[in-house]
Design a protein that fits this description.
The complex is a heterodimer of chains A (218) and B (341). Chain A is α+β, with helices and mostly antiparallel strands and 218 residues long. Chain A has 6 helices and 10 strands, in the order ββββββαβαααβααββ. Chain A has a 10-stranded mixed beta sheet, covered by helices on one side. With 341 residues, chain B is of the alpha+beta class. The chains are: A alpha+beta (218), B alpha+beta (341). At the A-B interface, strand 4, strand 5, helix 2 and strand 8 of A face strand 4, strand 5, helix 5 and strand 8 of B.
Amino acid sequence: MTDKVHISTEPGGQRLSLTDGTASLLLVPRLGLTLPRYHFHIGRVVHAAQELGLFRVQTTLLLGNDHTGHSELAELYFAPGLGDAAQTAALSHLIAAARALIARQPADFGDWLIAELPGWRDASGASPFWQALGERFYAGDAAEAEARLGPAWRSHLAALLPRQAVYLSFLGPAAEARLAQPADAARPALAALQAAGFQPAAHVRIDDGGPVLAWRIA
Amino acid sequence: MNHLLLRPVAEADLPALVRMAAASADGISSLPNDEAKLAARIAASMQSFASLDDASGEETYLFVLEDTSADSEGRVVGCSGIAASAGFFDRFYSYRNEFVVHASAALGVSQRMHTLHLCHDLTGATLLTSFYLEPDYEAGPAAQLLSRARLLFIHANAERFSERMAAESPGVTDATGQSPFWDAVGRRFFGMDYPEAEAVIGGRSRACIAELMPPSPVYVALLPEAAQWAIGQLHPVGELPFSILQDEGFDADSYIDIFDGGPTVEAPLASLRSVRHAREVTVGPATGRQRWHLVVRPSRVGFAAVLAEIGDQVDEATATALGAHAGERLLATPLNAEDRA
């Protein structure tokens, strides 16, 4: 399979492209070593009051740089019009090729390989996670800021977000329900990552709550 | 002298307390609407006033206001209390208002974010509690006597109290007893509505309940607007006692109640106006300008307080009304702000 993949070196890592041009990604050897990368870690806290017969499990979000130094499958690209099944198959090839590269020179890579997917949005393009959290801390136009700042957008946004653990229940049911859910368009990619053994998201993107999947390299 | 007398609660006051507890709004008064609990409050108070032991901090004191005018025949028209040490059996929880600046030059934003921090700061402070006054008496100086005489009692018996005073005030609730602050904060962690939670909280230490609340700060920006607005807001029934404490110099900006968001005021005892302007008086000739004062017999056993117009010293009739013996030293503090020298 890997003979269908073309590999080129770029400043940020290695670009893996299917030779038929239908899909590509950037394999980043170590992320977050120059520009800090932020994610929310999804945690769990149990509040129990035996005397009251209350036992409540709470989900928390803690801002951090947990994936610093890990490797990443970034800039996932699929040719327009590529069907869902074809997207899943294409990404599966690219993941296999990336793993083969990593296996040849493991010292160049981190302990984990991660992939971020965009978070769920409604038909109008609105993200319930952003509306419940990010928007309360940055009143400006997120899309405009992201277009202007590029990959640095989330690092700057992080400076405005809560530093202390946020209890998910404060964000309301809409955001709660969509936490770590990918955009509909990213479902084929999610399927490929899951099939490749990536673990369910323990982290999410800080703006739209999209899932961050991780696979243990070493 | 007018016709009001503040004195320690006695066993015979139980029917009056039952009447006042029933009249005060449910869930927002610190008087339990329960005869057995009120009897226990009376017994605890009598024990605290009479005890010869060193103070342990668990003491509670309850005062009642009597209308001594001929028509009223000593009818009890109000009450107020003191808990020597907040959270005596455990911890006393509050939310402390803190502001954190979140800034990003690249995004052109620098803003003060309001956060609420769960804290035990007021544990051990002396709490002013149980204020209730019949509506007919709210317009006059009765509320001043009822609330502020406690401060002189604490001042005169300082070894039994903290140097730091605090008082809780009921937060806003709607017509059905629901609290917007509770709905946005406590409800998420208790899964019950406010009246139900109040009923559960009533007989228990609040500390075990606060174990259910998040230890990390609450970002106010994440709360619905109604809950944000309720932070530090008073229930209308709390306005009168709150305004008296504000005039005394209590700070209302630092702490709120963790359940309904009502303001919890606090101040060092020595900074309070009634205490700063208190002076010792004895029975003597009517020299000096006659001004209205709170005059108290400060001893723990036999404590009493009245309102009287006095000059440099106190007159015989006032001393008699207080039950003071000849030559006993009394404490007086001006009733009105303009008379504070």
